[in-house]
Write a structure and sequence with these properties.
Blueprint (H helix, E strand, L loop, with lengths): L1 H13 L4 H9 L3 H29 L4 H65 L3 H5 L5 H74 L3 H11 L3 H6 L1 E4 L2 E5 H15 L3 H18 L1 E2 L1 H4 L6 H11 L8 E2 L17 H8 L1 E3 L20 E3 L5 H6 L10 H14 L7 H17 L6 H21 L2
Antiparallel strand pairs: 1-2, 3-4, 5-6
């Protein structure tokens, strides 16, 4: 009996791999990663150089040659950004591989620890079967009995240790799963940005070729073309402004909403419209989805049901973003708010906690609700002076909410650097906003903003 018990105690130490060894795969930085980072640094320098050329061309008097120089710089910069994004994806894939390896090692470690626990429990049950009666009947002598009791105490101690190891490994496994999920999400975002960048190069090259064809390289023809293409105030106001997952509205209407949002939040109207324009372009790539299929079932679906119920909408008819292959979608309306984010803008609180976001340490049941609408916490409704709950699919509401989130991200400072960073936070979150691979999204927003600002200036005389 003692031999089998001591064998089990030995298993606790022998079959359980070291947690440090499992985690070493994700912490090691292979030379390949360093090589990729070096290439990325070189590309960033080249991109910065093209930006300087672009800045000079844009600040000069508008001539045929300065326009061609600007287009060439834009094309070259975008092509370099595509290379940078591709390298970032490759680097991320290596990181994902390391996370997968660590996750596999942790899973194997967890299985081994559970098997050790099972063996300890089996032997504990066997030892618990001993009794004073069995000693009295001569099944074993008194000294062996008390010796086995010592082993029993050791097993109980090993049992406590085993529970602790399983809890630690389970926590590490969950953390590694979350890290892997985050890397996969980042990978999908980079692929989306790369697709946008490739489309942008095609547009830029087409614009350059069209300019060459129309002017034949003659300055006089170019100046005449500029005069011909100048839009009237009426044309600017009547042009349709497309909105993702919602009906297009006249630019004049969108501008009025954005200017009201600027007064309320400090986010420039041109920047708010530029973010919505960029999100609309993303929508063309990602398509549309449905809540039951594409939305996170534990986090967003319960909240979405309360939101649509409060708004008197059929959840099955409302468009949301389609989920990517790695996880969940479910973003709503032109501003692409996910339901669990919208609650803090649209006035929804968890009845149990009277908050819109989970307190520290709250479990996943927080999102199950029940939820209720509270007009006093409807931030969008307050700024609009509206009389009903805020609808994220409504153009006016979406424009105000986008301006609010951009202001929360720092755009209210109204400097190019702050606005660009706020846009990247809007897309990639605060953690990844400074990643150079997302520069294209921020640059795209700022380019749209410059064009909208020109129209706004012309409307203002």
């Amino acid at each position: 009996m003692r031999r089998s018990l001591f064998f089990v105690l030995g298993c606790v130490c022998i079959v359980t791999p070291s947690l440090a060894l499992a985690q070493s795969a994700s912490s090691a930085v292979p030379s390949r990663q360093q090589e990729l980072q070096s290439q990325l640094d070189t590309l960033e320098s080249e991109i910065a150089a093209q930006q300087q050329v672009l800045d000079v061309a844009q600040n000069q008097h508008q001539t045929f040659q300065t326009q061609i120089n600007a287009l060439n710089a834009e094309i070259k910069k975008t092509q370099l950004q595509i290379q940078a994004i591709s390298l970032a994806i490759t680097k991320l894939n290596n990181n994902i591989g390391a996370h997968n390896q660590t996750l596999a090692e942790l899973s194997a470690q967890l299985s081994a620890e559970k098997e050790s626990l099972a063996q300890i429990l089996r032997q504990t049950q066997m030892l618990d079967g001993y009794s004073v009666v069995s000693v009295a009947l001569g099944a074993q002598n008194v000294s062996e009995f008390f010796s086995d009791l010592d082993v029993f105490v050791s097993i109980k101690s090993a049992l406590i240790k085993s529970f602790g190891e399983i809890e630690q490994t389970s926590s590490s496994t969950e953390a590694e799963k979350e890290a892997l999920q985050e890397r996969l999400a980042e990978q999908e975002q980079l692929r989306t940005v790369a697709q946008l960048a490739k489309q942008q190069v095609q547009i830029q090259q087409k614009e350059k070729q069209q300019l060459l064809t129309q002017t034949k390289g003659i300055e006089a023809n170019y100046q005449k073309l500029i005069t011909t293409n100048q839009k009237t105030a009426g044309q600017i106001r009547s042009e349709l402004f497309s909105l993702r997952d919602s009906a297009a509205i006249p630019f004049g209407t969108a501008l009025a909403y954005a200017q009201a949002a600027e007064k309320a939040t400090g986010t420039r109207a041109a920047v708010t419209l530029a973010v919505l324009k960029q999100e609309t372009n993303l929508g063309q790539n990602l398509g549309t989805g449905s809540w039951r299929v594409d939305m996170a079932p534990l986090r967003d679906q319960p909240v979405f049901a309360y939101i649509t119920q409060t708004l008197g909408l059929d959840p099955n008819k409302m468009l949301v973003s389609k989920k990517p292959w790695y996880g969940w979608g479910g973003a709503m309306g032109p501003g692409q708010f996910i339901p669990s984010t919208w609650v803090c803008y649209g006035g929804f609180v968890n009845v149990s906690t009277n908050t819109c976001s989970p307190p520290s340490g709250a479990d996943k049941s927080f999102w199950q609700g029940p939820w209720q609408y509270d007009a006093n916490t409807d931030r969008v409704r307050k700024l609009l002076g509206a009389t009903g709950p805020s609808n994220p699919w409504n153009a006016q509401v979406a424009i105000m909410a986008t301006a609010m989130l951009m202001a929360d991200n720092g755009a209210s400072l109204q400097t190019p650097k702050a606005e660009r960073l706020a846009a990247q936070r809007y897309f990639a979150g605060w953690t990844h906003a400074n990643n150079p691979a997302y520069a294209f999204y921020g640059d795209g927003v700022m380019k749209f903003a410059a064009r909208f600002q020109q129209d706004i200036n012309q409307l203002g005389g």
